[in-house]
Amino acid sequence: MNRGYFPCTGRGSGPIRNRRDFLYGLGAGIGAAALTSQLAASVTNPAKAGKAHHRPSARRCIFLMMEGGPSHIDTFDPKPELDRVHLQRFQRGGSDKSAMESGTRYYVRSPFRFGKFGQSGADMALNWRFLSGVADEICFYRGCQVDSVNHPTALYQMNTGNRFPGDPSLGAWVQYGLGSIHDNLPSFVVLPESSYPQGGAANWGNGFLPPEYQGTPLRPEGSPVAYLSPLPGSTIAHRRAGLEFMNSLNREHRKKFPGHEELSARIGQFEQAFQMQMSVPDVLDLSGEPQHVLEEYGYGAAPTHNMARKCLLARKLVENDVRFVQLYAGTWDSHDYIGKAHGALVESVDRPIAALIRDLRRRGLLDDTLIVWAGEFGRTPDNGIRGGTAYGRDHNPAAMTVWMAGGGCRAGHTIGATDELGAEAVEEVRHIRDFHVTLLHLLGLDDNQLTYFHAGRYKQLSQFGGQLIRPLVA
Fold this sequence. Notes:
By secondary structure, this protein is α/β, with parallel strands linked by helices. The chain has 12 helices and 21 strands. The protein is 31% helix and 15% strand. Strand 20 and strand 21 (457-459) form a beta hairpin.
């Protein structure tokens, strides 16, 4: 009897030798989940020897996750037809099906005006005052679709390829396939909001991959990692001696359970925690940033400070060879007052994101750093009316806008289209699995080769295979 998962590289989990070992194996998932609060990417990580399947366009990725589902209709996909049908009853297929199912519904025009920007003539709402200045660095994609209308399952699908928890996240797959670049820093870092997104830490978990591949979340306030600073009076020699003693105990324990990868991961995590105490404080210290750079990002100013801090940290992390950084901003779940809600959100993220793109370009990092902007789904062209002016939009898995910058994407282009009302993608229509395959391709990975044996079969990010969206690639 085997524990149930074996990596395709041949690293097995070993046989279960007795009842105690069997019971230990039943808790392996819980043990791996508990490690989420610890540090990931051990220095003994076997994937450090990871190798790209083909020449990559990008070495690193910054994924800007707009939790809650930003409205494509009110950001990057203008729909003049909605002005004509504003407040008319919603119709689909000749019958008022939506009205019958969830009350009377009406088409709603966008509260924002749009313009065309850059030499590419990219469509953007006028309140993107800063991002519009880097429009030619961006590849907008309007053909993406997902399966779920519920936030947790849609977030899981965007982050892991599966609508249900338990699968590895995109960052975990990238780390598994390519390994770490930097010995003293995690390879996969997450910058969440003060509260975790719906579905929690499983959005950046390792799933059935070994636990060292999970993301390392940095706290939004105070010390970014708990216990990062040593105790007063503790010297490097003291900490090294304590670490060696702890590792010797862990190694003795591992001899009794040679098939349990969590034990090896624990040893590596303690080692990396020691290394991080010396390297992370400098990397995450923003006090040395020039004042003009802080002002460019909107650091220290309302309402941009929180996003500016995360974008600056993301830049410093990739500058120090962190492989994958995911940054959360939200929530964009605007079921009413979309003008006020989306207006405030755009104002909070517009300046920092534009500054991040410009800063990476100045430093020569944008060409091999892929930036991705996405929510978990788009929004509908209609909604119920409350209070006469509280217009909003519902969840829409059939239409959304995602965009990329840098890293070999086809900058200065808009790919795909939605129908005249923004209800459904109609050109270059692809499932999210194809978008994931495209992201992996830009990072030098082939989804069909990036597999892990689990539950009786080789699994991959796309679940059952996907196709490259060629028009998105330069």
